[in-house]
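Appendix B. One record, verbatim.
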Amino acid sequence: MAKGKKQARSKAKKALRSKGLRRSSSKTKTSSKSRSAAFLRSEISGIKVAILGIGNVASCFVQSIYAKELKGMWHEKIGNYRRNDIKIVGAFDIDKRKVGRDLADAIFSEPNVSPKFSAVPKTGIIVQAGIVNHEVPRHLTSQTIDASDFRDQLKVTGANIVLNLIPSGMADTSFDYAEAALKAGCSFINATPESIASDSSLSAKFEASKLVLVGDDLLSQFGGTAFHKGILDFMNSRGLRIEKSYQLDVGGGSETLNTISEPIKLEKRDIKTESISEELPYKFETVAGTTDYVDYMGNNRTSYFWIQAKSFFDSDVKIDVYLRTNDAANAGNVLIDVIRAVARARQKGRFGSPKEICDYGFKKLRKPALLRKAHEEFLSQYS
């Protein structure tokens, strides 16, 4: 009986092949590949971001995502993603003037002073109360929730990346946000100067959960630190010996106001100074930091630079210049690049804190990184 059944099955298979159904099986495999490709495409178009802190930088970032046309894009494509692949799905803040409002309105609410670069239609994204584990800055009026409620709300948004843009000096709050993002299954980008991505134990937790954690302290596209590092690199490449340099920053807007308290000012100065001093292969005297807040400057910043170097026959070369920029706009290109790189890194199985992303987009690093080399390595991985 068993032998008869085998013979019957064999005859049935031959009959199917003679009718061309073998080709049908091939189509099934192709169809399966198509479904896989479709899934990959859906993943590529699915960068879903939740923003923490709806300040001036967030305002510019939101405008850039909703803008129909955007001039000045640095890198049109990073990691197979374009700007339009980024979707904002959630927003959190502790300021009562923003909580409960549509994101399109909240980004222009006080105390924000970022310019209106582009119209933003009603988004349907209502700013929700965030968490705080620190004394609230005096210029903010708080409305908060606890970490567990935040985590639940974050899950509802469907975000896969959390972007931390809260004020400087709130280390415990940033850490709580990172822990909540980890538990919600989201990668985390820390634009603040707090030691989040540079915390090796926290980075290891993200890596174990197959998530990405990058930071700390966002390096603007052409801000004071980038300019200072860049000009020192150029002078060194031309054979000059740098002896001394300093950088003094004055600005308006909440970002500068948040750094005026003495402890935060000193922390920021240490981060900037260390980042700049690492640009050269030898020691030299340098200092860099924010010196004052000027309210009528709005979201603009002026950075003053003085550099002293030696050339042939020990002759003096001195540079005394200033740079004027807009804080929020200066952050835009780097944020869009970092977000796309984080999404791609996770696709590639680059979990934890990929060095090439941290070196490219941030000042506070575990190990020194040269500005030009960091950019080249970032593009080699993600362009």
